[in-house]
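Example 3.2
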Amino acid sequence: MQAQVPFKSLIHVIVILMFALYGCGGDEKLPIEEVLEPTDETQPIEEFPKDEENTIEIPDGMVFVPAGDFLMGSDLDKDPMADPLDELPQHKVYLDAFFIDKFEVSNADYTKFVKATGHRNSIFWDNPKFNHPDQPVVGVTWGDAVAYAEWIGKRLPTEAEWEKAARGTDGRIWPWGNEFDPTKCNFDDEGKFDGHLDGFAMAAPVDSFHQGASPYGALNMVGNVAEWVSDWFDTDYYSVSPRENPKGPKNSGMGKKSWRGASWFAGLDHMRCAYRDYDDIVASGQIIGFRCAMDAPKAE
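Structure, written as tokens:
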């Protein structure tokens, strides 16, 4: 079954307008936790000590994200495109160290899994628009993604892990900083799917857009394809999530699983590290793929 591309409901627009009017009427702001100062974008972020980097054996095809705090969610003052229903409050989260795939899982990767296990293939396995070996696999459900991850000895990242891997620790809007650059990601740049600015009408090979890499070296964390994560989706979860290693709500009354990162189909407003969305657990559309994660050994 192919899912329709999900759209935010009309209430999102109404609430955004309410926030805009509210901001014009006074200086009050929603309470948020103390935030870290933004890093000068002309300077690289030193994300972990070099001695730690040298003692960690990083699995092939993955990048290392060290333990520590990061800013999750959006600040409406700094990001006017933020969704006030799903991305607030911005809050500080502590995560244990983990590894995450440098690339989205490709069709070539997924085909090995299908041949080894007899698992069903992507619904687009015979569609030349989506089935090139180097393109990210799409047309897979959340359960398909979990099955692949388990087969390869990994797991899906949590929403929090995915977001930290995408933006680093300083609350930046995009993986590369706080100024948007349309040449650093694959998105619907002209509203007509012609790849005018980025060169790709649909999904690009997973080893693309190195210039848009995250602070840890992960590619295509915004754009290209959206990515399933492990969490059930809950609009209000940020207001109740635990301070350390949040894993999402225990269940979702909507039966929806979260995905992150937006896609080649998405417009600029979705092309942000903090953007959240969801789909049915059995959905398998043309815009959603995934990447995997693993726990890193704890420092002794």
